[in-house]
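Risk mitigation, structural track. In case the binding assays with fructose -6-phosphate fail to produce interpretable data, a predicted complex structure has been prepared as a fallback.
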Amino acid sequence: MKIAVQKDYDAMSLCAARLTAEEINKHPELVLGLATGSTPLGMYRNWIRMVKDSSLSFAGVTTFNLDEYLGLPPNHPQSYRQFMNEQLFRYIDINPARTFVPNGISPDPLRHCKEYDLRIEKAGGIDIQILGIGRNGHIGFNEPGEDFGQLTHVVKLSESTRQANSRFFPSLDDVPTHAITMGLKSIMKARKVILLASGEDKSEAVFRAVFGDVTESHPASILQLHPNCIFVLDEAAASKIP
Ligand code: F6R
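Fallback model:
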């Protein structure tokens, strides 16, 4: 595992944007795994700027998002599909038909999970997976205790995650209780993983991911076993790393 520590959020975002842009420029038909949440927004803004100044193109890129709330339709303001459209896809030259987000209102979510895995496989697998990290060490919606061996599946969200995400909903009761997420096995299958973390409140989760035991009680710790993983951190998120 490599660790790149940048001064602050903006520097972390630029570093991650450059790392990925370099790869996309080398392999224009790259398959990207994407995350939502606050952390990757700065990187997405840099990608948008690069597309505008023609130093980057997503014309040949395919994307698969990590997760989606179960029960939210794609056009719901808090769905992750809507988030991706609003924060990234509408501003870049990507083919919308090649952007995939799990369907939160599939009539058969278990079957949908299998189809999502198949679609990733058919696209040739994920070349670069972008991740954030939760304060409890979750990646995607893989909460502590989640089996390391899972592909895309349905999960029950922990109370701490629902509370953290309630800032985007009118009230805690409006936060869905379940989600569809790529599993830890899906994430480990990606050829390269880039995890972003910013802020002091992520420092303990980052420390345990890098130096703690590899244990299902801290999902991000599995990344210690990934052959090509880089943590791009700001100084605050790295502050517990000796
Ligand atoms: C979102 C996702 C989550 C977030 C994590 C951190 O698609 O997979 O695991 O990456 O909850 O969220 P932020 O970046 O908002 O702190």
